[in-house]
Amino acid sequence: MTAAEQFSVDTPAGILHITADEDGVTSVSFADYHLDQRSPVNAHAQQCLQQLQEYFSGTRHEFDFAFHQNGTEFQQRVWAELCRIPFGEPISYHELAVRLGDPKCIRAAGTANGKNQLAIIVPCHRVIGSDGSLTGYVGGLDKKEFLLKHEGVRLPGKQSVMEF
């Protein structure tokens, strides 16, 4: 078994740390510092980097490279549902719970959303409060706002969509 590879990359949203193993990308997370390794060797990591560049250039709306993360059966269901949220079309935590088949599981769905280790790829940033407010994001609300604006989402109280 090959060891996991981890590297960092600068993006318009900030520094990302990306980890990949022989089966796919296992983590994409926001960071405040660079790792020593700045270019991927692993083929999955290379595809991830390429597709992230396309996402930030505005030419990609979905990711189709191999990725995976460990979690409970419920977390896996939540993360699969997050991947079904279309680019630029945020949903509420309540809507996420409804899509999972149980409107009462809002808190559990929110907790699973927060445990997502594949920022941007599994688009947990597309889940917002029922009133349109930005709530909770592991990368910080500034990153969540940036990603939503990048996707053309008009946020309450904001003058306009961010231009690139």
Describe this structure in words.
The chain is of the alpha+beta class. It has five helices and five strands, in the order βββααβααβα. The chain has helices at 43-57, 73-82, 93-99, 106-114, 141-150, and strands at residues 5-11, 14-21, 24-31, 91-92, 127-128. The relative contact order is 0.15. The strands form two sheets. The protein has a three-stranded antiparallel β-sheet, covered by helices on one side.
The helix/strand series, from N terminus to C terminus, equals EEEHHEHHEH
Structural class: alpha+beta
Number of strands: 5
- The end-to-end span amounts to 41 Å
- The whole-angstrom Rg is 16 Å
Low-pLDDT regions = 159-164
Largest sheet: 3 strands, antiparallel
Q: What is the overall number of helices?
A: 5
Helix content: 25-40%
Taking strands numbered 1, 2, ... along the chain, how are they ordered across the largest sheet? 1-2-3
* Strand residue content: 15-25%
Question: Mean of the pLDDT scores?
Answer: 90
Shape, please? globular
